[in-house]
Recover the amino acids of this structure.
């Protein structure tokens, strides 16, 4: 599997080795070693299920702080619709988009716009003769990695389109 930075961190001081995450990981990426959960990075698809189910909150998602973005020369924000949902009574998303520019991003591109392009292409693709059905969207990288790892026989069903990123 391609090398990339994973998104799950373990706080060893909180992990009790209870095996809850091990039982729920869809790719069997987790083992308990010396009483602590360890993740096999070759098998982890970054689905986040182990973060969600850990009863001791020992796992958390890797995230960066805004202050850390200064090390990048050109900063692009990709706001998803979920960002807008966090504001009460937001009657215009432009307030949020302007705000992102004001706090230091050089460019803003809405994820929803890319999703519209993907939907339009998908509609065209589904009309193509000879494609394998059911067709599976390539939009979610977690699903794409799950298929490649656990269900390789379905790989040809995945729509041939690079997901927006
Ligand atoms: S569920 Fe949490 S506490 Fe239990 S083994 Fe996994 S990380 Fe550790
Ligand atoms: S993020 Fe998903 S695939 Fe990776 S270790 Fe956790 S449950 Fe398993």
């Amino acid at each position: 599997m391609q090398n990339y930075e994973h998104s799950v961190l373990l706080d060893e001081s909180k992990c009790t080795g209870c095996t809850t995450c091990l039982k729920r990981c869809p790719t069997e990426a987790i083992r308990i070693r010396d009483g602590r959960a360890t993740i096999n990075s070759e098998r982890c698809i970054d689905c986040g299920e182990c973060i969600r189910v850990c009863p001791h909150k020992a796992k958390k998602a890797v995230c960066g702080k805004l202050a850390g973005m200064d090390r990048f020369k050109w900063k692009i924000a990709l706001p998803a619709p979920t960002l807008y949902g966090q504001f009460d009574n937001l009657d215009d998303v432009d307030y949020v988009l302007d705000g992102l520019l004001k706090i230091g991003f050089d460019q803003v591109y809405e994820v929803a716009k890319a999703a519209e392009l993907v939907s339009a292409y998908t509609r065209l693709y589904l009309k193509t003769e000879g494609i394998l059905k059911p067709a599976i969207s390539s939009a979610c990288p977690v699903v794409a990695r799950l298929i490649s790892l656990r269900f390789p026989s379905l790989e040809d069903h995945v729509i041939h389109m690079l997901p927006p990123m």
